[in-house]
Amino acid sequence: MIKEKSLLEIKNLHVSVDDDIKILNGINLTIKLGEIHVIMGPNGSGKSTLANVLSGRPGYNIDKGEIIFKGEDITSQDPEIRARNGMFLAFQYPMELPGVRTWQFLKSSVDAIRLHNELPELKIKEFDKLLEEKKEIVEMNSELLKRSVNEGFSGGEKKRNEILQLSLLNPTFAMLDETDSGLDIDALQIVAKGVKNYHNNNNSVMLVTHYQRILNHLSPDYIHVLMDGKIVKSGDKSLSLELESKGYEWIRESILKQS
């Protein structure tokens, strides 16, 4: 049972990369079940780093702090264990996996989660029925499922494939790292529809984005502004509209005045 429905707690998280380059400088954030949190901020502020570190991606040094997920300290946990326990990261730049057929990749992923939860693997007919239902949500062309993962996919098709994975795996916590970047209006609406279809009171979303436009289709609970590796301001959806019209410099100036 998740204590007080608190799904994720990030406590004083400091992160660096090689040569002791500091990226995150004391992140504190609590995400409860059913919430959508949006992370915004200028380039180089640490937004993608935060998502990558939470997922357990190698290459980052956690110098200080804790990551508590479902009441368990996962700060040193391997990424595959985090994924099996209900974490999901949709990449800003989804990678191609030559030689790995999309259908097989999706089924293997679903079965790995099921086995971890002591459930049997899905029979092929069962999986195909589920896949048919989920691919309709993101309007995914069936021919793409026969190709290697993301190989020859357009940018929009890669992002739809990420949301298809999200729909199939049904994680407890979804991190979407600029899933809306590079999408035209139609593709953006389809991706947003997929996120809305997935989200409910039994899961949570952390969306990293530069743009307010995807928030026209979602109902975030909190907007957080990340600057210089810290959350410097939080608010409701109106904050994203203010950022859209005024940029970030006014926040920096406000911080300087207070210091």
Q: How does this model look, in words?
A:
The protein has a single domain, classed as P-loop containing nucleotide triphosphate hydrolases (Rossmann fold). The chain contains 8 helices and 12 strands. It has helices at 47-55, 79-84, 102-116, 124-137, 155-169, 185-198, 237-246, 249-258, and strands at 6-17, 21-32, 36-40, 61-69, 72-73, 87-90, 97-101, 148-149, 173-177, 204-208, 222-227, 230-235. The longest helix is centred in the middle third of the chain and has 15 residues, at 102-116.
Fourth CATH level, the homologous superfamily: P-loop containing nucleotide triphosphate hydrolases
What is the CATH domain class? Alpha Beta
- Number of individual domains: 1
Query: What would the principal axes of the Cα set say about the shape?
Result: globular
Radius of gyration: 18 Å
Structural class: alpha/beta
Total helices: the number is 8
Helix and strand string, N-terminal first? EEEHEEHEEHHEHEHEEEHH
